[in-house]
Amino acid sequence: MTTKTVPPCQAACPVHTDVRGYVTAISSGDLETAIRINRQVNPFPFTCGRVCARPCESVCRRAQVDEPIAIAALKRFAADNTRGINLFQKPESLYSEKVAVIGSGPAGLAAAHDLALLGYMVAVFEAQNTIGGMLREGIPEFRLPKDIVKEEIDFILSLGIELKPGLSLGRDFSIEGLLRDFQAVLLSIGSQKSILPKCKGIELTGIIKGVEFLKQVSRGERPHLGKSIVVIGGGHTAIDAARTCFRLGFPDITIVYRRSLEEMPANREEIEEVEKEGIKVMYLTNPVEFLGDGKVETVRCIRMKLCEPDESGRPCPKPIENSEFEISADAVIFAIGYIPETEILENNRLIVSKDNRLIVDGTGSTNIKGVFACGDVVSGPSSLIKAIASGKKTAKATHCYLRNLPVEEGEKFLPFGMLNDRIVKLISKSGRQKMPTLPIEKRINSFAEVELGYNREQAVMESQRCLKCGTSELAKQLRSLSRSK
User: CATH number of the domain at 98-192+339-402, please?
Assistant: First the structure.
């Protein structure tokens, strides 16, 4: 394995996007170069520019001075302003082997994309009639418009990938059957089966699952849940469900989360939008019982306190004795955890772990020769960008298997260290550009996109905040600042 020292943003990105490179290109107005840099490692720049977890921003050295660079917003700007540019030609079929990809979420499509570019004939099997998995049905349009998802998927499919929608593993075909027609199978069915707690009253009518609710609304249905809605959870699905309820016109929405704001997985900007939309958030609160006569009417909760960290590294919440209280609820939406459809996997002779994940080795290979897996079915629920990285890694391993090559570890990216205090004091402060958003009054009964994107002036100003870590340009700037001060 070779190692490479890079800016912290690039090291933190699961696909190791050259952030410095594309941000620099934006600052000089070269948007085509910016989007090419992105697409070299990530087939979803439109999507990631909107809904990425942004691990790059959390390590940005600019934050030592004032605020991190708005890396995702700049990615979106480059993507939105280069729509229609054909960056890759349809590749020639270099190999006779065919690869079947099961599942059309981000991991599966990323794998299909890379295998097609390598020269394989790829077919994607999808249980639904629409393509895109959770990108299409699990993320509301006010965060990720459907036309954006369609454009991104159409680009991937234009590489010559065959699409087989409406075909479900276990119902319409088996892995054993696929291996008669394909030389490798890549499994990417996600982790969408909701987990419900074993609480008293969980069987009451009006208690629904977050992902199913979002899918229902995505299909154009408008469920009548009542007036008071309680959403359980603190991740993206919980936030999306609560904000969807706001758009459906429900007047009283409360998010219940067992940890504090600092531990909440959702992005800070999303939480700010929740507050703007008048949605209440109860931190350090956990449901213990659901009450009602056949239908949920009340949620009994208990206050929590944070103790020693658990296996996730976050402080573990523990209940506070005699702190129970009740919340009125016409409906409860649960968004606390998800697992794969393990029965389907086991029926196809695949081995599943005790924590309901498909077992693979370091290359993504399962217990069946020629069958690989990637994404949430292996890792459990994770972020979009991690799913993309998983798909790309497994595509490479599949290629090595088909060519009878050893699977070599890729480059290891090591981040530059933090800036020392002397350097931080030399750099002038310059606040992050504020993202334009849709006015609150226009969000009710509307799924129009909330974040409107930077204009050209904002994008250039934001890109010029980049310190260009590791370049001679940064050193020159610091020498100049040192002389002037």
Answer: 3.50.50.60
State pLDDT tens for residues 245-268: 999 999 999 999 999 999 888 888
Alpha carbon distance, N-terminus to C-terminus of the chain? 43
Q: Break the chain into its structural domains and give their ranges.
A: 3-86+412-484, 98-192+339-402, 196-336
- DSSP assigned state of 350: -
Q: Give the rounded distance of the alpha carbon of 76 from its chain centre.
A: 15
Using DSSP bridges, classify how beta strands 298-309 and 325-328 pair: parallel, antiparallel or unpaired. antiparallel
Are 304 and 318 in contact by the 8 Å Cβ rule? The answer is yes
Per the document, the length of the chain is 485
The answer to whether 454 and 81 have CB atoms below 8 angstroms apart is no
CA separation for the pair 298, 290 (Å, rounded): 6
- Output the CA torsion sign for 246, 248, 254, 256: negative
Neighbours of 343 (CB within 10 A): 11
What is the SS3 assignment for 310?
coil
Phi-psi group of 82: left, alpha or beta (phi > 0 → left; psi -120 to 50 → alpha; rest → beta)? alpha
Cα separation, 180 vs 193, whole angstroms: 29
Domain 3-86+412-484 has CATH 3.40.50: no
DSSP code, position 435: P
Class at the top of the CATH hierarchy for domain 196-336: alpha beta
Q: Do the two domains 3-86+412-484 and 98-192+339-402 of this chain adopt the same fold?
A: no
Residue indicated by tokens 């393990």: 342
| Tens of pLDDT, residues 48-94 | 999 999 999 999 999 999 999 999 999 999 999 998 877 777 777 78
**Could you tell me if 428 and 483 are in contact, meaning their C-beta atoms sit under 8 angstroms apart?**
no
